[in-house]
Amino acid sequence: MKAIVHTARGTARDTLVLTETETPTPGPGEVLVAMRASGVNPSDVKLRSGAQGPMVAEQVLVHNDGAGVIEAVGDGVGPARIGRRVWLYNVNRSADGLGQGPLGTAAEFAIVPAHLAVDLPDAASFEAGACIGVPAMTAHRAVMWAGSVAGKTLLITGGAGAVGHSAIQIAKAKGARVIATVSSDAKAEIARAAGADEVLNYKSTPLVDQLIELVGAGGIDHVVDVDIAAHMEIYPQILKLNGSVGAYASASNLTPALPFYPLAFRNIQIQPVFVYSMSDSAKAEAIADINALLSAGQLTPRIDRVFALEEIVDAHEAVEAGTLVGNAILKI
Fold this sequence. Notes:
By secondary structure, this protein is α/β, with parallel strands linked by helices. The chain has 12 helices and 16 strands.
């Protein structure tokens, strides 16, 4: 079979290799999936580059997310699963989610622990299935961690991105009013198409001024944040008492200062979100809700570009450049 292996930390061009190897056999508790699509996430790119630690073996497979059809099962897995369409998550991580593992989805066939292969609803394509594990599960946790959002007003920053786009759809399906932020008119159209009630261009006028004009001071119940460092200072002005934040990145400053007392006085709760190490209960809730939304047509991940397996370097470089608006996948 064809597979992508990662041989060292560094650039995509220097470290990712398309190889021919034997099709593996599933062991106890595992399934063999004939892959149809593999998701290329920013975390996959950062891991490859060396930003998240050294290699765990001389060479490893790559990518966590994907979708395909179960071809064979190992001992302890019911044979009824053979032939099932599935989406995959956390495949390239250690058991605790904190490090890299040797398995991956960027191959014609993938060995996967059976519990990481989730039935893919018939309404969803394989391509959509490859965009769920990191983007949609992150979005779900960032939206839902503090409880029901029905009837609440949510601010979702980066509303046109892979996570933000899914977060808008999840929040709307759960009954929230959604205000999204974007950086251009083109991205505003994407956020509106996802269901955002209001869309604000944060480059045109200071975001805090736009929000106070729109909903008043302290008018936001919950924030889903793509860059906590860029917005933490305005949380006390925009969030209600006992408001909450689900933050999944902090690109503008990896170690932002916390304005403790302004946040404490309003009892603002902040939950960092790292999808790979979420609790089992959080994963189970996300999986159930996401599959229900996929089945109902209420969640459709946005795919910006589709690459062939042989274009793995181009795919990583496109994600690394930060110019895509939505997900990147390999079609296998």
